[in-house]
Amino acid sequence: MTDKPQKPAHPRTMAVHHGTRRSQYGEMAEAIFLTQGFVYDTAEQAEARFIETGPDEFIYARYGNPTSRMFEDRIAALEGTEDAFATASGMAAVNGALFSLCAPGDHVVAARALFGSCLFVLDLLAKFGVEVSYVDGTDLDQWRTALRPGTRAVFFESVSNPTLEVIDMKAVADLAHAAGAVVVVDNVFATPVFSRAVELGADVVVYSATKHIDGGGRALAGVICGTRDYIRKVAEPYLKHTGGAISPFHSWIMLNGLATMDLRVRAQADSALAIAKALQGHPALSGVIYPGLPDHPQHDLAMAQMGSGGTMIAFELRGGKDAAFAALNRMQLVKISNNLGDAKSIVTHPATTTHQRLSEDERARLGITPGLLRLSVGLESADDLIADLRQAFGN
User: Fold this and answer.
1) Residue ranges per structural domain of the chain
2) What is the pTM assigned to this prediction?
3) Partners of 208 in beta bridges
4) 263-393 is a CATH 3.90.1150.10 domain
5) CA-CA distance, 269 to 190, in Å (whole number)?
6) Separation between Cα atoms, residue 179 and residue 149, nearest integer Å
7) Rounded to the nearest 10 degrees, what angle do helices 382-393 and 248-279 cross at?
8) What is the pLDDT of residues 164-184, one digit of tens each?
């Protein structure tokens, strides 16, 4: 039995109810179908299912599972896409989205400012014969110059990790579509709460569900959202044969995360804005980077695209790595880790962790200086976080 709430539904309502599949027992909470295989009544039924499956017909958990299908239906409804495929991690989603699209000889244009593992995936594409061109994602002229007829895809983070550059999605999508390219957007920092990616022209939207969707730092997961043809005819064949599918238990965790995501993320974004304002002008800092602040280079664009500055802040300490490490080691409430989107506030030194594999010149070009810290704002009191950061920064 599948619940189908009347349309239109508020995103917060969809995040609680959409796509629920109940067994014959009528359970209230979403069920965890911990099974790797499924039974067929007859040999003929098995044959038919391997040829074509319906929404409630399953073959093997690597291909699909009722719990995972609930998560996929729900996130697709929230994102405004026809379908979705859940993966074992956010990077499995990035890998699946790009490798399923591209073949040797294809051309991809990507923003230069990306998470280190995303850059690694693009390097792998290049090793397999895909030409990858990198651009400054905020410079439309560079996108225009790099794109050419027949470009297969463009790839960028809607808000870059960790320097929080905001990409003009509509402008880039218009340029990409004119060249015939598929627009693939990593939308983790924008979150499904503040996302308008599909409306702004994204064809494929990728999330690390490990982050804000889970919201509790409990499990790895990812998801690819797009048209039904893309998900079922392009992404799914690649993922189900290469083993990138999510586990049913992790799907169940993500379903529960979705139920509170809107409330959590909005509270975190409100706190992030308060923290960014409170720490502007701090003598230990040469800058506070937050899209919600009027002095951010893409502030107006961020407000137009997301309506919020999001949950992430970057701080530039004047004393470089030594000052950054000293501040990290003085933090008491904020925890040092490399995750984000958690209920707990987390701080990271990108130059020595998430982006350490890049050369010093590459990090400098991206603005990842030795003094840069990335803060993921959690659900603690904003006043408590401000006090902890101030004492860590030496005031």
Assistant:
1) 11-257, 263-393
2) 0.94
3) 222
4) yes
5) 10
6) 5
7) 60
8) 999 999 999 999 999 999 999
